[in-house]
Amino acid sequence: MFYRESGDFKKTYQEDGQTFPIRFDRWRYWVILAIAFLVFPFFMNDYFANAVMIPFLVWAIAALGLNILTGYCGQLSLGTGGFMAVGAYATYKIMTAFPGMDMFSVIILSGFVTAGVGVLFGLPSLRIKGFYLAVATLAAQFFLIWLFNKVPWFYNNSASGQINAPERDIFGIVITGPHATPLATYLFCLIVAVALAWVARNLTRGRLGRSWMAIRDMDIAAEIIGVNPLKAKLSAFAVSSFFVGVAGSLLFSVYLGAAEVTDTFGINVSFMVLFMIIIGGLGSIFGSFVGAAFMVLMPVLLKNILVGGLGWPTDLAAHLEYIIVGGLIIIFLIVEPHGLAQMARVLKEKLRLWPFPH
Amino acid sequence: MKFKQIATVALTTLAVSAPVAADLMFPSLSYRTGPYASGGIPFADGYADFFTMLNERDGGIGGEKAVVEECETGFSTPKGVECYEATKNNGALVYQPLSTGITYQLIPKASADGIPVLSSGYGRTASADGTIFPWVFNFPTNYWAGASRIINHIIDNDGALEGKSVALLYHNSGYGKEPIRTLEALAEKHGFNFTKLAVDHPGQEQKSQWLQIRRERPDYLLMWGWGVMNQVAMQEAANIRYPMENFYGIWWSGTELDVLPGMASHGYKAANFSVVGSDFPIYDELQKHVIDKGLAAGDGSSVGSVIYNRGLYAGMVVAEAVRTAQAMHGVSNITPAMMRDGLEALNMNADAYARNGMSGFGPDFQITCEDHGGTQMAIIQEWDGKSQEWKMIGDFEAPDMDVIGPLIQADSEAYAKENDITRRDC
User: Fold this and answer.
1) Which helix (H) or strand (E) is B417 found in, with range?
2) 3-class SS at B29?
3) Where are the domains of chain A?
4) What angle do the packed helices B100-113 and B77-87 form, to 10 degrees?
5) Which residues of chain B lie closer than 8 angstroms to A178, CB-CB?
6) Please, are residues B399 and B144 in contact by the beta-carbon 8 Å criterion?
7) Nearest Cα to A71, choosing from A295, A298, A276, A344?
8) Which residues of chain A neighbour B177 with C-beta distances below 8 Å?
9) Which end of chain B has fewer CB atoms < 10 Å from its terminal CB, N or C?
10) Does B156 score more than 90 pLDDT?
């Protein structure tokens, strides 16, 4: 019914090695892209862009980044919030130092700055593993937040320590600042997210991604078959931090427009991104997106139903939100410990056989 | 999964497309949950109760019903932004987010959308400059004025500060950092040593800061705290027997919940811009029209507290601004732009306070096109451990404008330069 695979023969190596070898998957992928690029823009308003789609895309990029490090390379990191802060402050410094620069260059440069910092904090991973590495990255989180609070140069000596994104554009289309239209900001984030997801997907399919997965599965065995752990681990830290830095950069410049380091990039951010990839599915690009959708959109949806729809008091709704989201996380993890991506995978295998499972 | 995502999105958009109300809409970005709820609840209750009272007693303002739409922020800025986006299209007239972080986020957004923001006693101090911030108001006072008022109080009562030491214990956020610049300028002017002690969110962990206070014994201690941080600091101060009469809080650190039972906090002082106590005619009206009818917001337990009074005050100045705007434009159902005009022409004199049954509740001030900050006067209150209540000492007094004026000028210039804003002519 859904997966009609008979007669779908692969005649070249290229066809055989493509990202979505099954035709139905490929169609589904193009349909989602078409909806995101061609349908959603017509429904874009301030609320849909700023409270639903942009946070979803930004957190999805962050989840992708952490998934590369934790899901693909097996290095547990609790420094995501700190690295996002690096991306945000790099963006702020670049935006204020070079007012003429376009936003794509700004966020890519911020990504590279974060990648550098990430490699620096990734060095301990060569000696320590597992929970001990988590503690080392936790130290990175606290150190970076402390640094951005302590040194006034990072926030251009503003009185309150807040950073504000000035108005910047691409080809004359305003992307940041209060005059940016929801359509422009949404499409900007979408293009960045799709491009990065494409990069991540192809990196993880290639030589580099396989060396990460070899390290994740058994580092000693990987070393014996010739994977260089230094290269693999540090490249994972660099690529992951690049993604996380871009997410922090977008969070500050496009989504919020202003940021305050302890409030926006605190330890709870690191945990939230970790929950996203655990719920979504470790080692899955699709999982990063569903995980982000679950953690970002579920509270908004619940709030709109409970307060907007049912008219309950806001404090009751806020407490219920915690209970429901927390409960759902536990239920999902009991039903499918490998995350929503695994659920989708099982569903797909069933659908491929359906309606004749034997 | 695709369908699930689409369904989520569709439901989300459906659920928020509420009809545009014809009434006067006052969004209340409140926080009734989280570590700062102890301050967020009374403020939201006071704000809501004041408008309920107007609706019950007068049928609204100028014949138009007032609607307070609450949105829970939990004191978190991303949630505050979401609340702003969710409420702004329902005809929101003015935002009072009760959070410096959210105010900073809303200043550019609301200015672009043409909705006024009022941050009484918090937010960006430089927004007192109406030529750079046409949509933002922060009367009757601000943190820089509060810092100056406390230092003046110390000098008036205990003599010159030359050679003495002053420490600031502050919440490590935009809110807590706001007074630092002023205190540094004041330290230079009066010749005292100034030390900064940051406390991280949520404020329960203060051991190392108090160790430093115990070691260095600063002559005076100022506190910019909020929520649970205040209570922890007070306990720590009592533990090291820091002299309470030399301990000063800003207005967000001077509530009934922030002091200890018994005589432990006797003599602790705090600045304020809305007075304490419930001995005002407005409380009779509230009792009659709101509380007795069972219409009080929340569980009604916060009525009469310090922050509840500030919520009432916030409601009252907004209602006065609406009346001013209605008189100016000759229509009762005003728009956010008319609301801005009303705020800009707001004249809070003795008559205006008396009209609302709140004589002496706050300082007198007159807002103009250039000046969105008012007289910036503040009053000092002291905790009386014997009677277990706050008492006002002294009167509303203006801060040291020689120091604050140039600082406001410099900061608003910096903001204008960063965001390409040209000073408007008044």
Assistant:
1) helix B401-418
2) strand
3) 20-266
4) 30
5) 108-109, 111-113
6) yes
7) A276
8) 159-161
9) C
10) yes
The verdict on B301 touching A (C-beta cutoff 8 Å) is: no
Domain ranges, ordered by start, for chain B: 23-141+277-376, 143-272+379-405
Q: What CA–CA distance (Å, rounded) separates B353 from B351? A: 5
Tell me if domain B23-141+277-376 and domain B143-272+379-405 are identical in fold: yes
Contacts of A315 in chain B (CB under 8 A): 32-33, 37, 41, 72
Question: pLDDT tens digits for A287-340?
Answer: 999 999 999 999 889 988 998 888 888 889 999 988 998 998 899 889 988 999
Tokens of B225: 């705290």
Q: How many CB atoms lie within 10 A of CB B205?
A: 12
Separation in Å, CA A344 to CA A204, A286, A287, A292, B2: 19, 9, 9, 15, 10
ipTM of the complex: 0.84
Q: What is the pLDDT of residues B355-406, one digit of tens each?
A: 999 999 999 999 999 999 999 999 999 999 999 999 999 899 999 999 999 9
Tokens of A22: 């099954």
Architecture of the structural domain at A20-266: Orthogonal Bundle (1.10)
CATH number for B23-141+277-376 (one of 3.60.9.10, 3.40.50.2300, 3.40.630.30, 3.40.50.10860): it is 3.40.50.2300
pLDDT band (50, 70, 90) for residue A1: low
A181 three-class SS: coil
Letter for the amino acid at A149?
N
Note the helical H segments in chain A.
13-16, 23-34, 46-47, 54-66, 80-97, 103-122, 130-150, 182-205, 207-217, 219-224, 229-250, 261-264, 267-280, 285-303, 314-335, 339-353
Q: Measured between CB atoms, does B33 come within 8 Å of chain A?
A: yes
Among the four given CATH numbers 3.30.420.10, 3.40.50.1820, 3.40.50.2300, 1.25.40.10, the one describing domain B143-272+379-405: 3.40.50.2300
B88 and chain A in contact, CB less than 8 A = yes
CA distance B225 to B254: 9
